[in-house]
Amino acid sequence: MKGKIRSLTILIIGLGLICGCAKNGPFSPGAYTTGKIIGKVTNSSNGEPIKEASVSTSPGSWVVTTDDSGRYTIFNVDEGDYTVTAEKSGYRRNSVNIEVRIWRESVADIQLTPLYPPVCLPPEGAPEEPCP
Fold it and tell me: Which of 77, 85, 119, 131 allows an S-S link to 95, with CB 3.0 to 4.6 Å?
């Protein structure tokens, strides 16, 4: 019986050390003390998502890229106030201010304005018309 209790004690201590020493383990001192930023980057002219836009925070050193639907997520953001900036070649950079709280999703949707108007070329022989 003493052998079983000793083995169980060693197992419990070992698991505690493994979980407690992990950087983001459930029992680590810093676990569950951050929030995350989510959002979507879109074209201000037509509302279309902008893929592969760069999204960064200030303060902080987080930089992520939007997916094909213009969405992004920044994980493990410390609680506080941030400026979130999106940029992509061909668009004017834009920023929004947000507040991040622990255990929460903070939404930072950003619209980018195209730098140049769209170019519409009519089919050969067709009369010129404004772009839709």
Answer: 85
User: Checking DSSP bridges between strand 105-107 and strand 91-92, what pairing results, if any?
Assistant: unpaired
Asked, for residue 132, whether it belongs to a domain, the answer is no
Q: How many CA atoms lie within 13 A of 95 on its CB side?
A: 10
Element housing 85 (H / E): strand 80-87
CATH code for the domain in which residue 43 is found: 2.60.40.1120
In tens, the pLDDT along 71-117 reads 999 999 999 999 999 999 999 999 999 999 999 999 999 999 999 87
- The answer to whether residue 64 is domain-embedded is yes
